[in-house]
Amino acid sequence: xxxxxxxxxxxxxxVDFETxxxxxxxxxxDSLSILSLVAEMEEEFDITIPTVEIxxxxxxxxxxxxxxxxxxxEEE
Length: 76
Hints:
The chain is an all-alpha fold. 57% of the residues lie in helices and 0% in strands.
């Protein structure tokens, strides 16, 4: 999770990812940020994020992102 927070902070440094729960709904991440985030997470955590997983529920918080990463790692 710590590495995920670092990746998020590199993409959007002014957001408090420890507490933010509306990254998508609150417009903290735009489409280009999401594309960068997906690419970084796939490389860092050795996962493939299917298009159907790129939904607000999975991307609204660092905790939700981490849950998705763990689930995808288990599936591979």
